[in-house]
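My hope is that you will study the record closing this message with an eye to the fold:
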Amino acid sequence: MSDNTLASDFFDAAISLLGQVRDAGGEEIAAAGTLLARTVEEGGRVFAFGAGHSSLPAQDVVYRAGGLAVMNLLTVPGSVGVDVRPATLGSALERVDGLASAVLDTGPVRAGDLLFVISLSGRNALPVEMASHARELGIRVVGVTSVAYARETSSRHSSGTFLKDHCDVVLDSRIAVGDAELTTDGVPAPFAPASTVVTSALMQAVVATAARELLDRGIEPPLLRSGNVDGGLAWNDTVMERYADRIFYR
């Protein structure tokens, strides 16, 4: 099997997953977009959290061209994983009870805000506690996860629950347990994960839905432009000044 065939196989797998998510998750994407638009309309703040590689889709919607200026990254020191040494520390922190509650109790998120919690497996203590404690504090939660893990694995949280059990809206990435789309003779492990592609697409679909919802409500969506086009930086300065009280990454 040639490398080009494997490349094509990966694209086919990713496209298939994107189609499944689009066709099966339309109602949930719409619900999450409505929740995001409503939060912006009501003056709430919006945050996204993910640990390990699940941080990538969270980062993808924060301070970027074509994105909502009010999207903020909720950070847990060390949890991104690849930015610390050893990288395995990030995985260990995901299994620590109490860490998420400490972050929420001392951080900027408050009642009435919206928090996206992204976790492929949704089984570790950090994302489960992040969602459950957020709701205790009156924060609305959208979970982005693979529901298959709740069917095929056991929870690592003391409650025995998964991320999906503590959300106002659940977006199912439909990624298979193990997060690898390809196998081939001579390679002993499956490879080519697609979770980042699919989860990032889900997040962008929610942002797109919210932009339409805001427009329908008579509100200009607070969208950023590319700083690499003429006038983009001045545009962004105006938007960020208007929404300064909801932006925490400056």
Remarks:
- The chain has a mean pLDDT of 95.
